[in-house]
Design brief:
Radius of gyration: 16 Å
Mean pLDDT: 87
Low-confidence stretches: none
Number of strands: 12
Helix content: 10-25%
Number of helices: 4
Structural class: alpha+beta
Distance between the termini: 22 Å
Strand order of the largest sheet: 1-2-10-7-12-5-4-3
Largest sheet: 8 strands, antiparallel
Order of helices and strands: EEHHEEHHEEEEEEEE
Amino acid sequence: MNIEVLFPTLVGISRASDDTIDAINEEVLRRKEDLNLLLSRSWGDNVLSSFDHEKNIFARAELHHLRKFIEDSVLQFVHMTRRDQDWQINHQYTQSWINITKKFGYQERHNHERNVEGVPISGAYYFNTNQHDGELALFPCDMQYKQFENYVIAPEVGKLVLFRSDVFHRVGPNLTDTDRVSFSFNYLLNK
């Protein structure tokens, strides 16, 4: 995992191994019909998501390989960025959902889970992308937005991006003819 510094926060970027990608692909394709039944237009006309119908897509669709890869990466991210390496944590998913971004689809600037007790981590796993179908932009905290540029991350199949949930972010428009498919989640850590 690479740790990128977006002052004053950190961004974790990891890539699944080819075997893990294959296992995730097999699980998702096996559950494709069930996943499609959960999709609705959530963020504009050109983004389909399970967010409004199912807040725990990993459990509902039995996406065990995807969940394990993300959970292992979240814990690695936390341990790599803590000085006290023996920090014991309780962890749980609070939400997980699938997004299918069609041509001209995008997501406005937003953040997740504020005012919760613990450390909320959000992220996205790229399941299908042509790498030109909308970049993820993370914004510096409000106090630093005039001093620092946005941190832009290009999508890539098997890439996982992690960041604190209160960090504002947006997804640029998909200006291509293929759909970008990603899985997003919120994860809560407590000491």
